[in-house]
Specification:
With 129 residues, the chain is α/β, with parallel strands linked by helices. It is 38% helix and 23% strand.
Amino acid sequence: PPEKTGGCLANVPRDQRPAILIAEDNSDNYKLYETVLQKDYNLLHALNGREAVQLYKEYLPSLVLMDLKMPIMGGLEATRKIREFDTEIPIIALTANAFDSDRVSAMEAGCNAFLTKPVKKKQLLELFF
């Protein structure tokens, strides 16, 4: 069951499945990712960028799905902070904004890919397989 950890809801990794950090403040969006990914991955859920950075440092996940617009610390700042520790981890930017300038900002911050919301299950799965 989910545990309350450092102010965030996290399905804490307990087995050998790879961990994915999902930084998403919208519960409906998180449910989509959870439905698609929970069978094959351990999921860590950060409700804001600060929690994302903390969970990243604690669990060293294999992948980060980063919402760009979150409270306390946005996804771009959180991405930059994670990049201070790890330049290799794939970070996928997720945003409702489809403007090219948003994509450019995400890539400049250190994201490896950019998806617009609502993310389709097929799009998400294509990132992993």
